[in-house]
User: Fold this.
Amino acid sequence: MSVPAITESLRLKLLAGANAADTQIDWPGESCAGLAEAGVFKWSIPAEYGGSGLGVQDQLRGSEAIAASCLTSSFILSQREAAIRRILAGPAHLRERYLPEAAAGRLFLTIGVSQLSTSRQHMGPSLRATGKAEGLRLDGDIPWITGADQAGVIVAGATLPDDRQILFALPVPRNGVTISPPLMLAALIGSRTAAIRCENVEIASEDLLWGPTEQILGKIGGGGLETSCLALGLAVAATEYLQQESKTRPELETVAGQFSQSVESARRRLHALADGSPDPESVAALRVDCTRLALQASQTGLLFAKGTGFVVPHPAQRLARQALFFLIWSCPRPVAAGVLDGLLPAPSI
Assistant:
């Protein structure tokens, strides 16, 4: 498989930092620097803004390879890429302001929109915007922002009093914005994912990317294929572990071969969907299958690693923990229902 800009030296650098990035609170600066040096930060940005403008399939190939080497680094990259997609869909003046700096690696963008979709919906909107379009004010919480204290711009969303929603680019630091300490996640700790508190934070009309409109994320599209790509990358890492073990343990050859076939099948489906205009049902079905594959391959690796694999920093335990992340990361109801079908016990006869 030809992968853009993922050299062996970059792969080894990501692998060397994968455990620390997963278990330590420090930002994985060396891994991110390696991505920048390899031109990864240019992939999704058009040439007119200083990027390389890679096609979607090439971006997915590259993201899969990064995820197979260091899921934390690929998760950080995915949140940057999600922010860039929103900027690309926004007004020209914001593209011109932010994209050249992002392509050059001088500006880290990230995104916080879970409050508009799956996070805390049972409690009502967690971030409110009041006022008029030319001078809105934000109050409340953005509960989930990766690299919050590393970002220069955060793409976020808020709900208006009439329940319509807006998407905006928020430069930080800014008066009234308080970044909480990073969350102690069960995995991917180095992503420095944190909550942000907004108190009477001003945003101008020139900061708006989209809206106001109802259910804004449904109108501008989501990142289902990208999330599936990262789950696939983790399944690749677990399968490679099984293949390596099978060289000295012949009983693993059939198991490793089955997972290898499943990985290749999921990869073909992912690229086929990326080539067209996929319907939401197909995107959700792939997400379900890639999530199951990540869980199954990583748990199989741990099963065969036995007690040795349960000790940090063995990769088997890391991959098994990281696979759990796909159960909660941007997991909409249809995906959750599909994954649940594979978790429920068979009915008693």
